[in-house]
Structures are given as C-alpha cells and as structure tokens.
Design brief:
InterPro entries: HAD-like_sf (IPR036412), HAD_sf (IPR023214), TPP-like (IPR024197)
Structural class: alpha/beta
Strand order of the largest sheet: 4-1-12-13-14
GO molecular function, one term: hydrolase activity
Helix content: 25-40%
Protein name: HAD family hydrolase
Keywords: Hydrolase
Length: 274
C-alpha cells in the first residue's frame, strides 16, 4: 500500500510557539496559570517557555508531520532551544539564510541565497553604516549583524521616536531591504531573504502534499502566504495591523495560550488534512 505524502509544518518560534517571561501574557488568576516548561536557557538563566500541554502537542506533531522550526534567529541562538519531541530533520534559521539538515548547514542552499542577495540588494555594509549613523545611542542598546546576512538593533521602545522605523523602512525599500519591529528589536532584512523560499525547498525535498505554517510578525507574512494554510496569534505585528489572507486563521488567543492553540490547530489539520 503506497504511503501518503507527508504534511509539512513550518512554524516560527519566538512569540509563536515559545515565549519569554515578558511575553507570556498570563492574565488569568495565579492559581489558574498553566504549568510551564522551560525550553531555552541562556547564560545559565531560563529564557523561553511553553505550556506543558503545548509541549505534549508538539511531541505529537513531530510524529504526525514533518515539523520544521522556522526562525529569524541565528544558528547559535536557535541551537540553545531544546524543543520537546523528536529532533527535527530540517530547521530554517536566519530568516531562510541557513537550512539545517540534521543540525548541519546545507552549504549549497546558503550559497544560492547569498548569490541572490548580492545580485538584488544593497550590500549589508551600506545598511549597517546607515544604522550606525542614524540610530541614536539614547535609545539603542545594541547593534548586531546576524550571520553576515542582516542587521538588527536592540532598542528601548519607550524612547524610540514614533516615525523612526517608518522612515527607515522607506529608505530601506529603495535598496531592496525590508524593516520590521519586533518587541525591542528593529530588523533590517534583504527582501529575497525569506522563510518561504526555504520552506518551499524543504517541501520539494520531502515531497510534502500539504504545507502548514504559523507566525506572528511581518517577517512571517511571506511564510504564511506560501503555505496551504496558516495561523497567526492575537498578538504581534500581524495582529497589530489586522493582517489576514484567505487561507489564514487569525486566532484570538494571546501570549503562551496562543502557542498552545496554534499547536492544537496544526496537529488537528496534519492528522485530518482533507
């Protein structure tokens, strides 16, 4: 009897499946708060969590589908996450700049990505220099270059001028880059550097018949649009602007409860894909 083509699930991690303490949004009475599982430790401190129920759902999802963690994190940042369930064969890091296969970078994929960036976008150094010149040390805490692919700032949101990000986005647009504000981070990312392109590559390699996706930020929009079905939580950039599309489900839950709901939806759909 022929086997069914697999279902591929590509999901963002931060503020989609896993949550920092500040992003948990535990609005219920303390006695009714869910039990939490720590899934990331950084510098000997717990950093990211999911509910224990969500952890069980993710373990089941890893058995029911090809689960692909899909993140803007660098490889080093991703590798300190300890997700429950079977170790994913594929992971997408650096917003699609690195495709990991059994934890190892696929060199051919990375070479293809960097060649396209060189052809279509202003160089990284130009963007970095502009940010160094225009970002005020009064509200910038860190300048970071990620994997020699994109740049981001860590900022004090309450001190950030209201229109600064919009003005940066206009400047970057003309140079083939896109800008996204996520929490305390302002990202500048080359337009061709997308999670969706890497997801399509994994779908091609696995022969997936159905692709499912989840994410909360503007950097996830292309991933959600490229999937057959997608889900976004009730928080994050996409929720803030009321973003939706025909195959996208906008969930009402916010914070860590949204992560649990997203996993329920992904698992249910993966098991009954009709």
């Amino acid at each position: 009897m022929p086997t069914q083509p697999p279902v591929l699930v590509a999901s963002d991690l931060d503020r989609t499946l896993i949550y920092s303490a500040a992003a948990l949004a535990l609005t219920m009475p303390d006695a009714r708060a869910p039990r939490l599982l720590c899934v990331e430790v950084h510098e000997s401190r717990p950093l990211s969590y999911m509910t224990e129920t969500a952890a069980g759902l993710l373990s089941e999802l890893g058995d029911a589908a090809v689960f692909v963690p899909t993140t803007t994190r660098t490889r080093k940042q991703y590798q300190r996450i300890n997700l429950p369930g079977p170790a994913p064969t594929y992971a997408i890091c650096a917003n699609g700049g690195h495709l990991l296969v059994d934890g190892v970078t696929d060199v051919d994929w990375h070479t293809r990505v960097t060649a396209r960036l060189a052809d279509e976008c202003a160089p990284l150094e130009e963007i970095r220099a502009h940010l160094q010149e225009r970002a005020d040390p009064l509200w910038v805490r860190k300048h970071r270059i990620a994997e020699d692919l994109f740049v981001y700032l860590v900022v004090e949101r309450e001190l950030l001028p209201e229109d600064w990000v919009k003005e940066l986005a206009v400047w970057a647009e003309n140079r083939g880059w896109t800008v996204s504000l996520q929490g305390r981070k302002i990202y500048a990312v080359p337009k061709p550097l997308t999670k969706s392109a890497a997801m399509r590559e994994v779908a091609r390699r696995t022969g997936a018949a159905l692709t499912l996706a989840a994410g909360d930020s503007l950097l996830d929009a292309d991933l959600l649009l490229a999937a057959d079905r997608g889900w976004r939580p009730g928080h994050g950039e996409l929720a803030d602007v009321g973003w939706t599309a025909p195959a996208i489900t906008a969930l009402p839950e916010r914070g860590v409860a949204a992560g649990e709901r997203i996993l329920r939806e992904l698992l249910r759909t993966a098991r009954t894909p009709q």
